[in-house]
Amino acid sequence: MTNGGVDRSVECTGSINAMIFAVKCVHDGWGVAVLVRVPNKDDAFKTHPMNLLNERTLKGTFFGN
Asked: What is the mean pLDDT of residues 3-12?
């Protein structure tokens, strides 16, 4: 349906599982995932390094900055 992934994903819930999926669903080579909300302080963002080494971009922001 997306031929390898989406170009951009924006995750605004603060859910760790949704954040990981937002990174995994972007296209290798040019996909950008933006994480907007701060997760729970006890949560840990764990994903395989290849999810980033495949030239995906991960950006984060909070409070509109």
From this structure: 92
CATH number, position 23: 3.40.50.720
Distances, alpha carbon 47 to alpha carbons 1, 27, 65, in Å:
24, 16, 25
**Of 1 and 8, more confident:** 8
d(CA 18, CA 54): 20
Residue 21 domain-assigned (yes or no): yes
What is the domain range of residue 55? 8-60
In angstroms, the CA 54 to CA 65 distance is 27
* pTM over the 0.85 mark: no
